[in-house]
Amino acid sequence: MRIDVLSIFPEYLEPLKLSLIGKAVTDGLLQLQVTDPRAFATDRHRTVDDTPYGGGAGMVMKPEPWAQALESVVRAAAQDAALAEPPAAPGAPPAGGSTALAAHEVAESAMSGLGSPQVPTDDAAARALPGQAAAPGRAASSRPVLVVPSPAGEVFTQDVAYELAAEEHLVFACGRYEGIDERFLDWARGEVRVRPLSLGDYVLNGGEVAVLAMVEAVTRLIPGVIGNPESLTEESHTGGLLEYPVYTKPAAWRDREVPETLLSGHHGRIARWRRDQQLVRTARRRPDMVLALDPAHLDRADLAL
Ligand code: 6GU
Fold first, then answer.
1. Residue 135 has pLDDT above 70, yes or no
2. Is 12 annotated as a binding residue?
3. Residue 283: which of 259, 264, 303, 269 has the closest Cα?
4. How far is the CA of 145 from the centre of ligand 1 (A)?
5. Ligand 1 in reach of 203 Cβ (< 6 A)
6. What is the pLDDT of residues 76-116, one digit of tens each?
7. What is the DSSP letter of 198?
8. Best substitution site from 7, 177, 199 to test ligand 1's pocket, by max atoms within 8 Å of Cβ?
9. What is the pTM of this model?
10. CATH code assigned at 245
11. Per the domain annotation, does 228 fall within a domain?
């Protein structure tokens, strides 16, 4: 997967070099780049913001540096993809000149507008187009997803994280101040798939901290990023219930004992105890999640609780 982050405060994204995400980059599972739209500002002061039309507090980010930053990362990704293309089989018709030219052409096609008939607008269309099926073992290439972190976005959930983890190229556009000029997003919808996403119902100063959270939630779902994939299946928000409490040695600590069921060695009783803990904890802390549970996923013992 390739992830580009567009931010006028690139230092905010430094933590992405650490820990599991840093290792995923080193291991070649993830390509991660941060681009500063200020690099595309043309005036002497490299201005990226201005006062809002219609008045009001704060500043609005100017659209052009963001458009150029987006174009540059989409083009770079398409060029990388074209360079990774295996050489044509001997005897096959020439693919249109040098590799560099082919890369350029792919980049142009990736940036062409929604109206262009040869560019599918989504994955389903990409797969449905006859004669354009992806080679076996390769994901169908589709337009990048532009994630726009915003308290006005759709809520970012574990389901959204799974959807994004299946993408080839994600671009995050971190607005600051009062946001980016809406025309940037209108234009971007003709180039990429745009997805405004919010972490929850509170306001941050900008998208950078939200991007740290989203990139971590997404990249840990990429196969190979987490050492033990079983840890993905048991955790909160998969299965609709919160996680059960956990304990380790010593069995007694400051007059507190580990629940005896966990010491019993009886796998059936332990599984039941953990499930009950999940249900009680979820009912107390997140009644909204209990109401959303699929009754088909509840067993008799759940209902007896
Ligand atoms: Cl994604 N961005 C900002 N600026 N504030 C937020 C948010 C995102 N999610 C919750 N609050």
1. no
2. no
3. 303
4. 18
5. yes
6. 999 999 998 877 667 656 544 444 445 445 555 555 433 33
7. E
8. 199
9. 0.81
10. 1.10.1270.20
11. no
Average pLDDT, the chain: 86
Which of 85-108 are b and which e, b meaning 16 or more Cβ less than 10 Å from the residue's Cβ? eeeeeeeeeeeeeeeeebbbebbe
Q: Cα–Cα distance between 3 and 18 in angstroms, integer? A: 15
- Cβ–ligand 1 distance for 212 under 6 Å, the answer no
Closest by CA position to 61, among listed 81, 87, 41, 84: 41
Whether 201 and 253 map to the same domain: the answer is no
Query: Which residues have CB under 8 Å from 35's CB, separation 6+?
Result: 4, 5, 6, 7, 10, 69, 72, 73
**Distance in angstroms (rounded) separating the CA atoms of residues 272 and 160:** 30
Question: Domain range spanning residue 285?
Answer: 235-304
What is the atom index within ligand 1 of the atom nearest the CA of 149? Answer: 1
Last residue of a domain, one of 195, 219, 243: 219
Between 19-23, 71-75, 95-99, 202-206, the lowest mean confidence (pLDDT) is in 95-99
ipTM over cut 0.85:
yes
Measured between alpha carbons, how far is 285 from 293 in angstroms, rounded to an integer? 14
73: part of which helix (H) or strand (E)? helix 63-84
Is 202 one of the annotated binding-site residues?
Answer: yes
User: Where is the domain boundary, 175, 193, 219?
Assistant: 219
Domain tally, the chain: 2
CA 153 to centroid of ligand 1, rounded, Å: 8
The residue-averaged pLDDT of 169-194 equals 95
